Amino acid sequence: MADVTLRKVIKRYDEVEAVRGIDLDIADKEFVVLVGPSGCGKSTTLRMIAGLEDITDGDIIIGGDVVNDVPPKDRDIAMVFQNYALYPHMTVAENMSFGLRLKRYPKAEIKSRVTEAARMLDITDLIDRKPKQLSGGQRQRVAMGRAIVRNPKVFLFDEPLSNLDAKLRVQMRIEIKKVHQKVRTTTVYVTHDQVEAMTLADRVVVMNHGRIEQIGTPNDLYHKPATRFVAGFIGSPAMNFVPCRLEEVGGRLNIRLTDRIAFPLPAARAARYQNVARNEKLILGIRPEHITEAKQHTEPGVETFDVVLDVTEPMGMETLIYFMLEGIEVCGRVNPNAGARDGAPLRLAVDLNNMHLLNESTGVVL
Amino acid sequence: MASTAIINKAAPTRAVKYGSMSRDRKWALRWSYFFLTLFAIFSLVPPLYMLITSLKSSAEISAATNPWWVFHPTLENYIGLLTSNQFLRFFWNSALVSIFVVTITMLISVPAAFALARMRFWGSATLATGVFLTYLIPDSLLFIPLFKMFAVFGDWTGIQLINRWYVLLIIYPTLTVPFCTWIMIGYFASIPKELDEAAIIDGASWFQTLTRIFIPVALPGLIAATIFAFTVSWAQFLYPLVFTTSNDQLVLPVGIITSLIKGDVFNWGQIMTGALLGAAPPLIIYAFLMDYYIAGLTAGATKG
Fold it and tell me: How far is CA A260 from CA A3, A148, A239, A310, in A?
């Protein structure tokens, strides 16, 4: 049980700066997910917390102690690796108890801890097997068991589900969440999968190019992204970005997408964007679920427009539609009964109450 | 058999496709049997000839009879050698040298390989290549400078190592350590990095990581290296020929030659018997360790 703090942490390999000054406060018992594309520095950050990588500069504090120069074994952390990293010559029980045996815990204590962890992870029947005789999901459970029996201050997960097939991944995701609900240990979890990040995390840390783009709850990131990167990274299908500019027509603020299409902004948005320069190059960010088929009664802030669809993807409970706007492909989600067909015209509604306006050059959400 | 069954079944419908595929495989099989047989004959004829000759009396060997047949089989060569204190002494020296050399080699090369494979220190990659390069220098090139070194060492310190069997314990590792280190570097490098990271996080020291994770996981490699070290030290000829001369210091390969060839008189029967008996221990060790080696492989020791 401990909080983890990173202060201006930098990691430099020869000439490459992998992590460029990270500040992060992780509260006790919190489940924090580091997410970002490959090479964004998230794994390096995790490994620095583990002590597997030295930090070039800054401070890492676990449970109030600066651990910059503390070797991994004295940091009281446990780590689950992507490829499980089970000891192939040991049985499941031996794998789980290895750390405790090194620390010379009494035999009875080891046994009870292993039994308890095995029960929690539902691997009691596998306790005498070798890793080779286990499936991917079972191996991942053992790897988690090995972390749990140590009862560490912090759990570190390094893309633990990447080697599993899609179905198992969903199952293990729930399993990890359940374990965290039971054990309540501070957890840092690294993944490149935004769905994993959203579903597991108390707070998500979005990283890019060795920097933190945004820290927030999954809902915050989804609804109030701070930058274009976060807006585009979180959510699937991804947010649409359409170049636009603001114009004032008869005292009302309009957003113009094309020569043909311009919408009046809802009052709240108009007030918010009042000070944005009219000649600034802007981007309209709008999530696919806010582009739907037009309905009889339109809410305030919902504007309609006509398009010709390029492609439709029926998903069952909804149909994804794709159409071009100023040379940019835009995705929307319509009701399967809305009559969306490949190449057919359709009247759509865009909900501007949920729009985002971004500065094109800085990528900052205004 | 299985392949013919498939041909017969499939013949009416897809004769060409199936037929040509398994015909290819059949020919490949025939060729491999042909060459394997050829090779087996090639390598088994000399020991067979040794066995035949070892069962003959000196008189029968020198008589102009069919050399591939024993007309009056006798065990007199075996009895002669196995009751000869001198021969048993050679055997004992060889065993002693080999066991010590294997032990010394493993004690040096396993930790060395671990350090070179895993502890990233300045110049470790260069050092690893250097280790291997030393193995490439042939012993026929090294024995003169080595002899000179030991002679000088003896002059300086008064510790006489030449013509002592234990001088071989210093010399053989110059052959075995580099090669075994190289083998073990390869095996250790194939162990996923996460495995030692997991061990480190679990609280293992470097030494514990080596003894409790790396050695058990790389056991097949360790056995391969052991077999190699044993074979090299058991069969080494040039070094003991140069460095040991007294009868009580000789190892088996040199002992057989020096004691059983008197001038131009070759005691063929006993030479063959001695060579055959000398080949027995490696044979037994191979037979035993090969099983273990394969068992180690199938236990899935390498996949993390």
Answer: 54, 60, 22, 19
Domains of chain A by start residue, with CATH: 4-228 (3.40.50.300), 240-359 (2.40.50.140)
pLDDT in tens, B68-119: 888 888 888 899 888 988 889 999 999 999 999 999 999 999 999 999 988 8
- For the beta carbon of residue A17, count every other beta carbon within 10 angstroms: 16
The confidence score (pLDDT) of residue B304 equals 37
pLDDT at residue A7 above 70?
yes
What residue spans define the domains of chain B?
A: 2-54, 78-298
DSSP string, A116-134: HHHHHHT-GGGTTS-GGGS
Instruction: Tell me phi and psi for residue B166, to 5 degrees.
Output: -75, -10
Question: Which residues of A, range 129-148, sit inside 8 Å of B by Cβ?
Answer: 130-132, 146
The fold of B78-298 is MetI-like fold (1.10.3720)
Which own/partner contact pairs does A61-67 have at CB distance under 8 Å and 24+ positions apart? A61/A4, A61/A5, A61/A6, A61/A7, A62/A2, A62/A3, A62/A4, A62/A5, A62/A153, A62/A154, A63/A1, A63/A2, A63/A3, A63/A4, A63/A153, A64/A2, A64/A3
Q: CB-side exposure of A66: number of CA atoms within 13 Å?
A: 8
Q: What is the DSSP letter of B84?
A: -
The structure tokens 């035993």 sit at B288
Q: Is residue B179 predicted with pLDDT exceeding 60?
A: yes
- Tell me what pLDDT residue A118 has: 93
Q: A98 and B192: CB-CB below 8 Å?
A: no
A17-66 pLDDT, tens digit per residue, is: 889 989 999 999 999 999 999 889 899 999 999 999 999 999 999 998 99
Which of these, A33, A39, A1, A2, lies nearest to A17 by C-alpha position? A39
CB contact under 8 A, A102 and B204: yes
Residues of B in contact with A72 (CB under 8 A): 197, 200-201
Q: Tell whether A260 lies on the interface with B, counting CB pairs under 8 A.
A: no
Question: Which of A44, A81, A104, A188 best probes binding to B when mutated, by most B CB atoms within 10 angstroms?
Answer: A81
**For A138-187, how does the pLDDT look when each residue is reduced to its tens digit (9 = 90+)?**
999 999 999 999 989 999 999 999 888 888 899 889 989 998 998 889 99
